[in-house]
Amino acid sequence: MISRASGAPVVAFRRVSFGYGERPVIDAVSFEIKAGQVVALMGGSGVGKTTLLRLISGLVGPQQGIVEVFGNPLNIRNQSQLYIARRRMGLLFQFGALFTDLSCYENVAFPIREHTDLSESMIHDLVMLKLECVGLRGAASLKPSEISGGMARRVALARAIALDPELILYDEPFAGLDPISLGVTANLIRGLNTALGATSIVVTHDVAETFAIADRIVVFAPSPNGARLVAQGTPDELRVSQDPFVRQFLDGRMDGPVRFHYPAEPIGQALGIGGPG
Ligand SMILES: Nc1ncnc2c1ncn2[C@@H]1O[C@H](COP(=O)(O)OP(=O)(O)OP(=O)(O)O)[C@@H](O)[C@H]1O
Ligand SMILES: [Mg+2]
Question: For the whole model, what pTM was predicted?
Fold first, then answer.
């Protein structure tokens, strides 16, 4: 809880650049996330949103710049620091699969068993409380194959918050959900943030749901050197933004600064019909 007491941001990017091999993905990005907020990192598919979460959770390290988490620069080579930082985070992965052989109960119990020496009766109470939070206490004994996709997402959420994380990272929590589950999940993210006194980072391209629950939104757009931060602010500030990237993104237009087509030779040429030559 140092971050809260000292007023330091829970997460800070200081001119962070990152690429996979030769391929640049993140270009000199700087932003700060304050304690207690729900912050959305938004941008089109493939722009580098999951990569931002990988940098925050220390799965990869920046090639340039500094990623600060809980007030300290994250050094991915420092295993003990990483372990301690991760213990304070909850991650809901983009394709956050549950262990299919384990019941919902055992899925949520898993990180508690991994990280603590609590007694079975303590674990039982914690698991039931977390499942209650997501409305699925009644499904404790079911296997993932016996519940719906939306319910599975909520069990994964219960697992992500099993250890009362100070920071919760959500990767595309709304993907593939029907409108009702989508609203439920959005409200759950907001509600859990308040209930746990946590900070939440939501990576998504779902504009409507995100604008309804986020305190702040950070928008990224592709560039030849990787994703750049193009705008940030409250939902109300972004709604009136005149930035062409932000407008294209919010209005869901196909044409704009971000092109629909990945750069390629003309279609005629590719099909060997017409074109020069
Ligand atoms: N492990 C990896 N090795 C090499 N390239 C990768 C790797 N992971 C991602 N990339 C590339 O980095 C870029 C950003 O990927 P990332 O998954 O961060 O995007 P994203 O914004 O989360 O996309 P989506 O919205 O589709 O989930 C993509 O061009 C992707 O092909
Ligand atoms: Mg992604």
Answer: 0.87
